Amino acid sequence: MKIGVLAMQGAYEEHINILKSLNVDTVEIRNKEDLEDIDGLVIPGGESTTMGKLIRNLDLYNDLKAKIESGLPVWGTCAGMIILAKSIYEDDTKHLSTMDIEVRRNAYGRQLGSFHTKSDIKGIGDDIHMVFIRAPYIESVGDKVEVLSVVDKNIVAAKENNMFVTSFHPELTDDNRVHKYFVDMVKTNI
Ligand SMILES: NC(=O)CC[C@H](N)C(=O)O
């Protein structure tokens, strides 16, 4: 089993380190060839506008979208969630646009928008350490989307078939339960 981590920008090394600690083979995705034999993909946090441009400029857009649409398990954290969303609140920008959610960027404010808390995620556990950094949250979800976590009335984790998203950054904590959950998602899909 091999999990690719989109490695253009943002917090990708932290994901790789946690996946390695779980004995998972990883590959840094920087071009089309890197996508060839992956069983799962992480799209990390960072800055979604920049990441979206890099995906197109490095000619990864079509292959990434096709793989996700044909069932590749994918996990988007923070900016990664924005990259997967079909709709961005009050913004016409479209990135991979595969998951039926509307997200609000910088939803907690730009300057003071970073905080952490502990809350539960359905199917994963209770008291999970959640770090939010200029994070988005999910405004609304389509019929096929399962809401997995709500913090202060805002949706911060969800799943639609092979697509899993979190507003927060589990790779910046010592709690590896969310990574284990995604690894299981990938395993059951092989
Ligand atoms: N930590 C993050 O990934 C922040 C996301 C960033 N605010 C964006 O809109 O792209």
TrEMBL record:
L-glutamine binds at G46, E47, S48, R105, I133, R134. Its EC number is 4.3.3.6, 3.5.1.2. Gene3D superfamilies: 3.40.50.880. InterPro entries: Class_I_gatase-like, PdxT/SNO, PdxT/SNO_CS. It catalyses: aldehydo-D-ribose 5-phosphate + D-glyceraldehyde 3-phosphate + L-glutamine = pyridoxal 5'-phosphate + L-glutamate + phosphate + 3 H2O + H(+); L-glutamine + H2O = L-glutamate + NH4(+). Pfam families: SNO (PF01174). GO terms for molecular function: pyridoxal 5'-phosphate synthase (glutamine hydrolysing) activity. It comes from the Bacteria. Keywords: Glutamine amidotransferase, Hydrolase, Lyase, Pyridoxal phosphate. SUPFAM superfamilies: Class I glutamine amidotransferase-like. The active site is at C78, H169, E171. Pathway: Cofactor biosynthesis; pyridoxal 5'-phosphate biosynthesis. Belongs to the glutaminase PdxT/SNO family. In the presence of PdxS, forms a dodecamer of heterodimers. Only shows activity in the heterodimer. Catalyzes the hydrolysis of glutamine to glutamate and ammonia as part of the biosynthesis of pyridoxal 5'-phosphate. The resulting ammonia molecule is channeled to the active site of PdxS. This is Pyridoxal 5'-phosphate synthase subunit PdxT. It comes from Terrisporobacter mayombei. The gene is pdxT.
